[in-house]
Amino acid sequence: MAVVFVKNDTIYQKDKPKRMYCRFKKYNIKSVDYTDVEFLRKFLNEQGKILPRRLTGNSLKFQKKVAKAVKRARQLSLLPFVADNL
Domains plus CATH for the chain? Predict the structure, then answer.
């Protein structure tokens, strides 16, 4: 849905941003497993850094669980600390 407004006889349209949602709550996921590397990579950028909540849409509770799982996977060498390409 676009919001339309007029200013100085010029029509502007502004798209509403997509609504963020916590995928853990939406799909009823109760825990985060540090051995599931492919799932954890969805929360990392190309350099291997953990993406913030404002980009992933996670709730605070699950963002903390994701961060802890990523850090454990890094300690066990399942995920790299720094990467050129993921």
Answer: 18-86 (4.10.640.10)
pLDDT score, position 17:
72
Rounded to whole angstroms, the Cα distance separating 4 from 49 reads 38
Distances (CA, A) of 72 to 5, 14, 32: 50, 42, 11
**77 Cβ partners below 8 Å, 6+ apart?**
none
Give pLDDT tens digits for 24-37. 999 999 999 999 99
Distance of alpha carbon 60 from its chain centroid, rounded?
Answer: 12
For the whole prediction, is pTM greater than 0.70?
yes
By the 8 A CB rule, do 31 and 70 touch? Answer: no
Q: Dihedral sign, CA of 62, 63, 69, 70?
A: positive
